[in-house]
Amino acid sequence: MTGTPTSVTTSDRSRRRADRGTLWGLFALPGTVWLLVLFVLPFYALVCVAFGDIDPVFRNAVPAWNPLNWSFGNAGEVLGEIFGGSLRKVFLRTISYVVCAVVLSFLVGYPVAYYLARHAGRWRGLLLALMILPFWVNYLMRMLAWVNLLQVDGWVTRAFSVFGVQVNWLDGQPITVVLGLVYGYVPFLVLPLYAALERLDGRLLEAARDLGAGPGRTFHLVTIPLSRPGMLGAGVIIALPMFGDYYTNDMLSRSPATEMVGNQVDFYLNATTQPQKGAVLVLVLSALLVVLMSYYLVSTMRMQREIRA
Amino acid sequence: MSSRRSRNPWRRPIGLATWTWAYVLWMFLPVAIAVLFSFNGGRSRSVWQGFSLRWWTGEPNASLLHDETLHSALRNSLVLALLTMLVATPIGITLAIGLARWRSRTASGANWLMLVPLVTPEIVMGASLLLVFTSLYTGIPLGRPAQLLGHVTFSISYVVVVARGRLLSIGRDYEEAARDLGASQFQALRLVLLPLLAPAIFAGFVIVFAMSIDDFVISAFLSSGAGSETVPVRIYSAVRTSSTPALNALASFLVASTLVALALGATVMSWFRRRRGTKESALADLTSVGI
User: Fold this and answer.
1) Which of A107, A263, B174, B212 could be bridged to A259 by S-S, CB 3.0 to 4.6 A?
2) How far is B130 from chain A (nearest CA, A)?
3) Cα-trace Rg, chain B
4) Is the pTM of this model over 0.90?
5) Is B132 on the interface with A (CB under 8 A)?
């Protein structure tokens, strides 16, 4: 007998592997089609509106579905405003707010993540639960809480006025918007940072200390370089939504003095009959963010492959 | 120098501990105060005027119990979250199974496609969906139908990420074992893989519910006016107008219901974990005896 049980099993398995391709493909089909129809195609529609025409009578946007019919007059107009006109300030402001908010988030969040990863001891479980809890409190609710405190007769405003500081915090103050962004997004920074610092090999820190480095040098020469990939990923993951944020700004300021790109997009798409301008702004924003997005995607893919291997 | 040496390098970092607890306080105190103000006796959301249930139940027209616009916002949020949960979780789970097992060029393309929504700012997704619903899919009206499709779209990837972690830790051995023992591919999936995936499926339900409840941008872009406002949209549009502590009551109620959903999910998942303990040992027996 040549057909031993083992060889039957093996051929059986290879046959199974062969028909597996189509079956698993079928499993992936609904989700993939859903994302094509409701994620990819809508983005294409946005491009077609941005490069489309404007109805000469009704002045509304007419999307150009065929790329050969794309016209760039509208896009050029908006780009002109971005580089030399009224939108220039808005873009520069957005970038500076986001940079400030990300840096402040690191200053606030890194020590927390570090303490959690290395020193929390018996409090770690409770603290981790507390770090996750803000995800379960509605973002708008968290902003509403600050609106209550920062109103003219709010508790924080009154606490400041005791020290002689009279500020109308909700009246177009850049610092309110930046701190609002920090408050809103810092929980999303702490958790990935914690994960990165927790993975860090404690023996390397001990070695640095044994070799004579002080706490400062150990931190600077060992902890920071080793946690750098995690830090970059965490920074990107909070910077991306901040760039498109308009509601934090609207809740805490609602003033042209602090307007960000998101506010302009919201304005053109939801309050005017010029959606094509909003569409161009979204395209420009996406073009700016594509570097950050690809960085995050590539590093995620690399990590996935490492886990699989 | 010697004084620095003599200090214990592994001492408890008091400064870091203080900073961390201050952070916790900073995260939760404002929210706690906002909840407190929902019980305010006066009309103000910033000056305390004594405890009352006026804005929860008392006011005949303006309390959470009696104000129809607040009801409808709450109803919209909860119905939308439930529907999103029921649609997005199955799609995400099947996509995760497919992507974990399917090896081809198309599969890696689908994998990329699945990851992109995770890093796309919501405003990009919201603007695209608004424009596609107003210019191409004109048969789907703005309001709940469009909002549901939008919410499912951003939720799918999160379900996939949750389920994939679990799929990787399960591996293929159990399924192979079932196949070797004569189960069909479908049976192996139904009787072996799905029970093992149950915790991830529940995690998916809970996460999708929370994401949908929390969402503002997609709901706002795809809303068709007051009738399809969700709670976050309601908070956004009412916060700067002459609003009362009833708004705080609405927000507090939403937070409470999210936490109840979380607690339910956690209970079910720990129940699964307990049950899985025995199940896994049974499977281990099977593998050691049978193969």
Assistant:
1) A263
2) 8
3) 25
4) no
5) yes
